[in-house]
Write a structure and sequence with these properties.
Number of strands: 8
Strand order of the largest sheet: 2-1-3-4
Distance between the termini: 78 Å
Order of helices and strands: HEHEHEHEHEHEHHEHEH
Strand content: 5-15%
Shape: globular
CATH class: Alpha Beta
Helix content: 40-55%
Largest sheet: 4 strands, parallel
Radius of gyration: 27 Å
CATH topology: Rossmann fold
CATH architecture: 3-Layer(aba) Sandwich
């Protein structure tokens, strides 16, 4: 009696083909793992971490205002504000900035001891203590002037600064920052409101906005295609003025807050 033919060989071939398909699928999945892990890592890095915003002056009201505005631009990452002590409520001269420096560094070093602190912002337009603090802590530190210059100079556009502090030493510092960051050819200079900045800051928001708007218009006349509103305490005024101008008004606190939040999400 002749044995019936078997289907062992076809079944074996089918199993081999199935294994090849399965292995191909597994390898394809493996190629996605690095990207998936990176995305999960970025999310995990942001979870529970927060930003410390240091106000180098002693004005607690300004600290709250800057912190609240910064918090609206960090996509859920918490911002905690801290005020300096033993310094004026408004920093208007190079000496004021120098006097604020030790307190900024002290606050930043203390804050960085908390492992949940993911980034620090120095929130005065003079960036007092920025390099000193960077040298002492292991978390990213952002100065609002430095970040505002980066933002304003994007795409090679010419930019200027409008501020309420006309001290020649401060204005020279702005020029030096532009040059040091490689934006000297784009920088169109600084326009300052006339008179005592402390007196202006004590006036109504409408009066402050009107004076600052004139400085912005002068900067535009200088050829600026973006104008930095130079001062942490001027953040709210900058936001009120933006609808009146077609060009971007760069808000230093917001520029730094966005950069700080990005660094946390990327795990830098």
């Amino acid at each position: 009696m002749t044995p019936a033919p078997t289907s062992a060989q076809p079944r074996s071939a089918a199993r081999s083909a199935s294994r090849r398909v399965l292995l191909a699928a597994i390898c394809a999945g493996c190629s996605l793992l690095p990207g998936l892990a990176a995305a999960q890592g970025s999310t995990a890095a942001a979870e529970g971490r927060y930003i410390v915003l240091i106000n180098p002056n002693s004005n607690a009201t300004t600290t709250r205002s800057m912190t609240e505005i910064a918090s609206t631009k960090t996509e859920g990452i918490q911002v905690e504000g801290k005020s300096n002590e033993g310094v004026p409520p408004l920093l208007t001269t190079p000496k004021d900035l120098a006097d604020a420096l030790p307190g900024v560094v002290r606050i930043g070093v203390e804050a960085a001891r908390d492992p949940k602190v993911g980034a620090i912002i120095v929130s005065a337009f003079g960036d007092p203590g920025l390099p000193e603090l960077r040298a002492k802590v292991g978390v990213p530190v952002f100065g609002i002037r430095e970040q505002a210059f980066h933002e304003a100079a994007k795409g090679g556009r010419p930019f200027g600064v409008a501020t309420t502090t006309p001290d020649p030493g401060l204005l020279e510092g702005f020029r030096q920052t532009a040059a040091a960051l490689g934006y000297g050819a784009q920088f169109r200079g600084t326009r300052a409101t006339p008179g005592d900045p402390n007196a202006l800051m004590s006036k109504s928001p409408e009066e402050l906005d009107a004076a600052l708007a004139e400085a912005v218009r002068a900067s535009v006349a200088d050829g600026a295609k973006a104008v930095i509103i130079g001062g942490g305490p001027l953040t709210a005024s900058a936001l009120r003025l933006q609808p009146k101008f077609d060009i971007p008004l760069v808000v230093p606190v917001i520029a730094a807050a966005q950069a700080a939040a990005d660094s946390i999400r990327k795990g830098k």
